[in-house]
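Possible regression after last week's pipeline update?

I re-ran a chain I had predicted before the update to compare outputs. Posting the input and the new output here so someone can diff against the archived version. Not blocking, just want to make sure nothing changed silently.
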Amino acid sequence: MTTVRETTSMKLDKQTKEEAKKIFSQLGISMGDAVNMFLTQVTLNKGIPFEIKIPNEETKSVMKDILVNKNVEKLDLNKLKN
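New output (post-update):
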């Protein structure tokens, strides 16, 4: 069976895209490979292949605070590892 390839244009968040490309590179796959894997899983699962939830009011409030750097303290990742 021959796979027919098609070019698609998408608008993506630039920073997220670049971070994901680095991860895909470490995995030895391209952005296109990753998107095809995702689409295959959507087809197999007949929906999004991971759980998506609407955040509750407390979570929404915390997310808004984080976006404006409110009620946020610096975190030392080295301390978390111990």
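Follow-up from reviewer: compared with the archived run. The longest helix spans residues 31-45. Marking as no regression found.
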